[in-house]
Amino acid sequence: MKVAVMMGSDSDWPILKPAVELLKSFGIESEVIVASAHRTPAKVREVVLSAPENGIGAFIVAAGAAAHLAGVVASYTTLPVIGVPINATPLNGMDALLSTVQMPSGIPVATMAVNGAKNAAIFAVEIFAVSDQELAKKLADYRTKMIQEVEKKAARVAAQL
Fold it and tell me: pLDDT tens across 39-86, in order?
């Protein structure tokens, strides 16, 4: 299984690149796609409808401003769609957050924090880990490593007291 990482504009890539790198660290392949819900709707539809035959098991979809891309993707598939609102306007991403999270009943988009692409990658890993014990182990190891890093930081602060 792989994750389709879609963005409405190439300007979203710096936010999404860490998610692609994190997926790779878990051994999950990704397919990166730039497509606009408004400017290239036929491409979005084609990508989503061909996803199962291309081995896509989930989508991470990012967009700013009107941020309709995740909702459009979700309208064409029953695969999990994880939305990442992007801070791209003077509203600091609040417009994108509301556009991504306010989906009608029956067409869900799991919405991360504004610019929360790394959490989107972790969420995709969690989805895949439900049916992949090796991936579940890698995820548990990742969490253990996070605990150890926090403990090291706590020790550094304690040493300064």
Answer: 999 999 999 999 999 999 999 999 998 899 999 999 999 999 999 999
- Phi, psi angle pair for 112, to nearest 5°: -90, 180
106 lies in the same domain as 151: no
Q: Are residues 80 and 139 in the same domain?
A: no
Cβ neighbors of 29 (< 8 A, separation 6 or more) are: 2, 3, 23, 55
Which CATH number does the domain housing residue 85 bear? 3.40.50.1970
Pairing mode, if any, of strands 2-7 and 29-34?
parallel
Which neighbouring-strand residues pair with 2? 29, 56
Q: Are residues 38 and 9 in the same domain?
A: yes
CB atoms within 10 A of CB 92: 11
| CB-side neighbour CA atoms (13 Å) of 110 | 18
Question: What is the SS3 assignment for 62?
Answer: strand
Q: What average pLDDT does the segment 97-116 reach? A: 96
Identify the domain containing residue 14 by its residue range: 2-130
Instruction: Give the C-alpha distances (Å, rounded to integers) separating 36 from 45, 130, 159.
Output: 10, 31, 51
pLDDT at 66: 86
